[in-house]
Write a structure and sequence with these properties.
The protein is of the alpha/beta class and 274 residues long. It has 9 helices and 8 strands.
Amino acid sequence: MSRDGDGQSARSFPPLPERLPVDVFDSHCHLDIVDTPVQEQLRSARAAGIARIVTIGCDLPSSRFAVNAATEFDDVYAAVAIHPNEATDVSAAVLDDVERLAAHPKVRAIGETGLDYYRDWAPKEDQHRSFRAHIGMAKRTGKALVIHDRDAHDDVLRVLEEEGAPDKVVFHCYSGDARMAEICAEHGYVMSFAGNVTFKNAEPLRDALKTAPLDLLLVETDAPFLTPIPHRGKPNASYLIPHTVRAMAEVKGVEVAELCTAIAANGERVFGPW
């Protein structure tokens, strides 16, 4: 999650884009903080060719919300975790609560967890302790690990190696360079690209996308943040993914339908069948 929200609820949402030729899904969003009822978000997403959504927990309240939303709506999955920015003095009891939530069958990932050196909201030692605990949780539960990595690439990769990575690892809102994409590919780590890959100053991200293999790609919104071009500055929601997918297809030099098909298959491999 990017905590750079700037009054998105005060601005109108962009229009519905052209529907994708093959249904995909939003691998990472925050249904609880998009300024629209969940049912309306799902309706607009379906109209754009986004058939499924993974809503993400960042603390106990948002993790509980994610589980409840996934329970209520067939086309929603949940991820549960304590965000690294919330990792200060995270207790064993809190982590136990997260793991109990993770036992729900509609919870398909532990996340978002990881390291954030851009913010100073939690000491690094607390972030590392929490991250390592979540890695263990993902391995015990057999769920995918969804990683928040902000300005902490080397340490995230090192901790994964030291702890032993789970079978399924997703770098949410991938922010590394092309060399890191090569390392992720060598380890089978999945890279999920968000709307910032469309930004004018995001050439290093696009170079990483060129490097990433099709079978290790996902797409996400991180809604309500990171709205893609041409609507940067407007609030984001899952239905705007077609803008990001079409930009990704252009960078990869593949047809949009081919990329959509790959993303859909990768999503089922990571999060399980729907």
